[in-house]
Every structure is written in C-alpha cells, then in structure tokens.
Amino acid sequence: MTTALPAEDRVQLLVQSGLLAWNRRKLAPRAPVARVRGKKTIAELLVEDRE
Fold it and tell me: Residue 38 and residue 7: Cα distance in Å, rounded?
C-alpha cells in the first residue's frame, strides 16, 4: 500500500529538485483553448458511446 503525499508537498519536492519554479501565487484564470463546434460536448459524446 502506497502513502500518497499531499499535493503541496509533491509540488515542494518538484521545486526543490529544480523541475518546477513556483512563486506560491494562484494562477490567473485563462480563456479555454478549444471550443465546441457541434451541439454536444465531448463528455456527452463519450457517455453516448458507452451506452
């Protein structure tokens, strides 16, 4: 059984190892990169495909 570290501890380990730079500020919201062209979302298509 593995014990998972809390997210903040994992981020801190990445910062200490030099793999990540983080100033502890929250990220600003960003506009979505992709837009839905049809009437259904990807989630709706996946649910429909599973039925």
Answer: 36
Task: State the sign of the Cα–Cα–Cα–Cα dihedral 26, 20, 18, 6.
Answer: positive
Q: Quickly tell me which residue has 């793999």 as its tokens.
A: 19
Q: Any idea what the Cα angle at residue 30 is, between residues 36 and 44, rounded to 5°? A: 25
Amino acid at 25: R
The tokens for 38 are 């049809």
Question: Can you tell me the mean pLDDT for 12-32?
Answer: 90
User: Phi and psi for 16 in degrees, rounded to 5?
Assistant: -65, -35
Mean pLDDT within 4-33 = 90
Question: What's the pLDDT at 29?
Answer: 92
Q: What is the mean pLDDT of the chain?
A: 86
